[in-house]
Amino acid sequence: MNPTHIEHIGIAVKNLAEAIKYYEEVLGLKCYAIEEVADQKVKTAFFKVGQTKIELLEATSEESTIAKFIEKKGEGIHHMAFAVNGLEGVLEEVESKGVRLIDKAPRKGAEGLDIAFLHPKSTGGVLTELCEHKD
Ligand code: ZN
34, 72, 73, 130: which has the highest count of C-beta atoms within 10 A? Predict the structure, then answer.
């Protein structure tokens, strides 16, 4: 797979506005984008820490996986995203190594990235996202 860097860390929060306050006032980061991803029923807020981003995720519906996650585990780290090149090929490669895929093919995520998730049962319990910048 050979990821180039950690693209972002996804954090499930109950209240986006309150969470943003912590990242801005305590960590001193600046929220540079708020985006709703209708597909995933979430509202996201982004911060940059070097090359890596923090992606805060608030559910916009009870049906959202984020709502279900918080219900089960509470707020906290939801997933880790690696930047890769050639996402389609990478998915084939990891599947051939026995990894269960949540997304068999890339789909659109926030910030126009192509994304796909690997099942946490195959990744030591860490919901793993792979993403590719298509320029
Ligand atoms: Zn993500």
Answer: 130
CA 97 / ligand 1 centre spacing (Å): 23
What domains appear along the chain, each with residue ranges and CATH number?
A: 5-133 (3.10.180.10)
| Helix (H), strand (E) at residue 16 | helix 16-25
CA proximity to 87, closest of 117, 110, 54, 65: 117
- Of 85, 80, 103, nearest to 1 by C-alpha is 85
Distance from Cα 96 to the centre of ligand 1, integer Å: 23
Rounded distance, CA 15 to CA 29, Å? 18
The pTM (predicted TM-score) of the whole model is 0.91
* Segment-wise mean pLDDT, segments of 10 residues, the chain, 135 residues: 95 98 98 91 96 97 96 97 97 97 91 92 96 85
